[in-house]
């Protein structure tokens, strides 16, 4: 199988590329190294994942931009499957520059779909739980000592794929990802291509260069180890389900293996109700693992923040025969170990 990974020099994309290279597939990576610019701050070692893959695997590397139709058409020639991880990933950046956010997440995805159609290639699209917008905050929650929980038993398994997306605030990031999400669904429903949407919750793992705006598990771990201040927006009791990156890649691969049986699909993908953490609970894990007390301050809630988001992963369980294998505490330990082993990357 010939696999194209867009955003393959990023966190998730590099793990996808690594997985398929180890499986003996023919892998091409497309990336434009724009993450630092999109997040409006310096990202340490922006080509680290690219260099890591190039050093360890026989992968074709193409520097190009998904916003450029010519780049996409050229790199997609002869491809069997596209795992589309390239994106503008931060809510804060979308508020500052909604045009760039739209061009990357909406137009870029459209370009990928058109190229996939020409090559009869399957598409895996990395969407986000932010497509549900502030409707998630309309679910009643109960405030406990260190976390919020849904108090409505209808959501004991988390947020399902048919949860409403209308009549609420989304943020530009939520809107642009939803545009791409809907386009992928449409192309699949009209049998233009085989495609699936994965609405991701919080993903963590090694080679994740977390920053305050994106990748909070990695950012909290990095800040704790390097004695950097951590700002918690809100009270720290907000909860997310956590998924280790190798479990995410396994879900992608399970879809690609079953794509002839599944006519498209939308999957909420995360750790599910058994694999959740609040910010305060993550801080406790980091204190135990590092022996250090993070430097924490608190600030107001940010636009688009959800008090609780937990993915209902039952559809992925049933249709993809998939479930998470790595628990959040174990995943956090792996992140801490990777940072400790690679301190020179952050000096």
UniProtKB/TrEMBL annotation:
SUPFAM superfamilies in the record: NAD(P)-binding Rossmann-fold domains
Database matches in Pfam families: Epimerase
UniProt domain NAD-dependent epimerase/dehydratase: residue ranges: 3-270
Entries under PANTHER family matching the protein: DTDP-D-GLUCOSE 4,6-DEHYDRATASE-RELATED
Family to which this protein belongs: Belongs to the NAD(P)-dependent epimerase/dehydratase family.
This protein's name: Nucleoside-diphosphate sugar epimerase
Species name: candidate division MSBL1 archaeon SCGC-AAA261F19
Lineage: Archaea, Methanobacteriati, Methanobacteriota, candidate division MSBL1
């Amino acid at each position: 199988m010939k696999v194209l990974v867009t955003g393959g020099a990023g966190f998730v994309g590099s793990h996808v590329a690594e997985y398929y290279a180890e499986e003996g597939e023919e892998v091409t990576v497309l990336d434009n190294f724009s993450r630092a610019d999109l997040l409006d701050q310096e990202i340490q070692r922006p080509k680290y994942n690219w260099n890591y893959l190039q050093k360890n695997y026989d992968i074709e590397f193409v520097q190009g931009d998904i916003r450029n139709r010519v780049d996409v058409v050229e790199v997609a020639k002869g491809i069997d499957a596209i795992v589309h991880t390239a994106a503008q990933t931060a809510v804060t950046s979308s508020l500052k520059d909604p045009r760039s956010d739209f061009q990357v997440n909406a137009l870029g995805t459209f370009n990928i779909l058109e190229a996939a159609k020409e090559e009869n290639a399957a598409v895996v699209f990395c969407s986000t739980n932010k497509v549900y917008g502030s409707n998630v905050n309309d679910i009643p929650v109960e405030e406990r000592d260190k976390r919020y929980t849904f108090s409505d038993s209808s959501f004991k398994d988390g947020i399902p794929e048919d949860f409403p997306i209308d009549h609420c605030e989304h943020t530009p990031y939520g809107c642009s990802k939803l545009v791409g999400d809907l386009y992928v669904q449409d192309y699949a429903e009209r049998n233009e291509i085989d495609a699936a949407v994965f609405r991701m919750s919080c993903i963590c793992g090694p080679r994740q260069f977390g920053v305050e705006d994106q990748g909070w598990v990695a950012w909290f771990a990095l800040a704790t180890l390097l004695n950097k201040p951590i700002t918690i927006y809100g009270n720290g009791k907000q909860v997310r389900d956590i998924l280790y990156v190798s479990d995410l890649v396994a879900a992608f691969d399970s879809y690609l293996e079953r794509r002839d049986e599944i006519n498209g699909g939308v999957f909420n993908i995360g750790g599910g109700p058994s694999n959740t953490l609040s910010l305060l609970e993550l801080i406790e894990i980091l204190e135990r693992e590092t022996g250090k007390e993070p430097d924490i301050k608190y600030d107001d809630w940010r636009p688009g923040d959800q008090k609780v988001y937990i993915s209902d992963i039952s559809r992925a369980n049933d249709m993809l025969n998939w479930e998470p294998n790595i628990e959040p505490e174990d995943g956090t330990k792996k992140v801490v170990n990777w940072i400790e082993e690679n301190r020179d990357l952050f000096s």
